[in-house]
Write a structure and sequence with these properties.
- The protein is an alpha+beta fold.
- The protein has 13 helices and 15 strands.
- It has a domain of about 80 residues: Arc Repressor Mutant, subunit A, CATH 1.10.10.
- The chain has a five-stranded mixed β-sheet with strand order 11-12-13-14-15, covered by helices on one side.
- A hairpin with a 2-residue loop joins strand 6 and strand 7.
- Helix 5 crosses helix 8 and helix 5 crosses helix 9.
- The radius of gyration is 22 Å and the shape is globular.
Length: about 375
């Protein structure tokens, strides 16, 4: 068998950036800049409702579409148009995102995973078959309902080594969400409002499980451009990346030819960097989300936003949204290397654009 071809690391980075619609062109197949098309291309919009700057799904959409959409577009799509739906993906090396907005049109791809989740048992679920039925009956009679209005009639309390102990309603809802039995009808602030999936999601077919898994891998690789086999299975073709070890998989349609970059301010959970090992191997970027790190030990801030410049990750913005004052406040910009005037101006412009999109003004305390 022939040795896979080797590509330069810079080419791999450009393929990854372009696949994530973060190059200057931002183009999709067909040239659409529609939110639904973006979500389908990316396969999901990450849900992290931490609102230090803005929720992750909104940030990911803005960084691809900018002012082509408004700040309420994602919520309208999910709650009114129901073009994506909120779902908990089965945790796996392939998908580091637990909660995501998934295109409703892709339901046939995910129904086998839902069926598998529904079939999985466990001691706590077995003990709470009655609780499950009572919860569903309450939703059928009175839903949609926020979690706080759903009765905790658990037959056996949920126990864990972490903070989920005693969160009986939450844990049952999350199991039923993953199984496709209940769905999130809307969010009231940060609180999810629940209903039966049959009243929220459209009926439809399910693909064969193996066929669906292979298609999910192909689409995931298309959205990443290049990835390790652990993330995308046998999708694409094998390649080696200069300066790294072991095989990668490359989307056969991906190319870095004619690449033109741009400056973008990313969400901490953006798919370009969500798989931290891939981020380190391709971009040599030192970064961690420090939201849960004690303040005295933080290097870049609780919710620092990575800065993309072309095919390089070059810094982090320590920012937060001050809604009372109507301002996006930047405490500091942490540069990985001294920026030139072009880069400083581009980052300033991107932050100004973000502040305007959020409906406020930019306040910078320290440009770094």
């Amino acid at each position: 068998m022939a040795e896979p071809r080797t590509i330069p690391r810079a080419e791999a980075r450009r393929i990854a950036v372009r696949a994530q619609l973060l190059d200057a062109d931002r183009a999709l197949v067909g040239g659409s800049d529609d939110l639904v098309d973006v979500a389908r291309h990316l396969t999901l919009l990450q849900v992290n409702v931490t609102d230090i700057v803005m929720p992750a799904a909104e940030h990911v959409a803005w960084s691809r579409l900018g002012h082509a959409i408004d700040a309420g577009a994602v919520r309208r799509a999910a709650e009114v148009e129901q073009s994506p739906f909120e779902w908990i993906l089965q945790p796996s090396p392939r998908e580091p995102h637990a909660v995501a907005l998934v295109p409703t049109a892709d339901l046939p791809l995910h129904r086998p995973e839902m069926a598998a989740a529904a079939a999985r048992g466990g001691e706590w679920l077995d003990q709470n078959a009655g609780f499950r039925q009572r919860l569903l009956e309450q939703l059928r009679a009175d839903g949609p309902l926020p979690q706080r209005e759903i009765d905790d009639t658990a037959d056996a309390p949920y126990a864990s080594s972490g903070w989920n102990t005693g969160r009986d309603v939450a844990m049952m809802l999350e199991h039923l969400l993953r199984a496709g039995v209940v769905a999130v009808a809307e969010r009231a602030g940060l609180e999810r409002v629940w209903d039966l999936a049959e009243r929220v999601l459209p009926p439809g077919p399910s693909l064969d499980a193996a066929e669906a898994a292979a298609e999910r891998d192909r689409r995931r690789l298309r959205s990443l451009g290049i990835a390790r086999p652990a993330l995308v299975g046998d999708a694409g073709v094998p390649v080696l990346v200069e300066g790294t070890r072991r095989e990668w998989r490359l989307d056969e349609a991906a190319t870095a030819e004619g690449f033109a970059g741009r400056v973008a301010i990313l969400s901490p959970v953006d798919r370009l960097i969500a798989e931290r090992r891939r981020m380190a191997e391709l971009f040599a970027f030192d970064y961690a989300l420090e939201q849960y790190t004690p303040a005295a030990r933080r290097r870049w801030g609780a919710f620092a936003l990575p800065i993309l410049d072309g095919d390089r990750l070059v810094g982090k913005v320590d920012a937060r949204t001050d809604r009372d004052a109507g301002a996006l406040r930047v405490a500091r910009i942490h540069w990985d290397a001294e920026p030139d005037r072009r880069l400083r101006r581009a980052v300033d412009a991107e932050l100004e654009s973000m502040a305007a999109w959020l409906g406020g003004r930019l306040v910078v305390a320290d440009a770094g």
